Description:
Number of helices: 4
Distance between the termini: 13 Å
Amino acid sequence: MTEIVPWIAAILCAAYGALTAFAGAGQLKTKKIQTWAAWGMILFGLIVVTSAVLILLKLGCALWVLLVGLLGIHAVAINNGYKMFGKINPVHHVARLFVSLFLIMLTIVGMG
């Protein structure tokens, strides 16, 4: 069972990172947020995708790369919500936090 956990972590990290990067690319076109913030979503999404590869390779830096990517996504998402709606939606960010904690937990278990 523990042999499958790194694969699950990697697949979910890759999916979450890719979806975030695609959302950032979409925001570049709509221009509802700052250009740097859209590029930030793309960059941090790709960092999370990179962590997926590192998880499969069982490299010790995978967790740190994942943390950097997730923290970056959270920071830029807070900025984007404020820019687009003039306020921060706590429920949205708590949901993101739970997704992030789940990915971190899977990574720790999968790397262990």
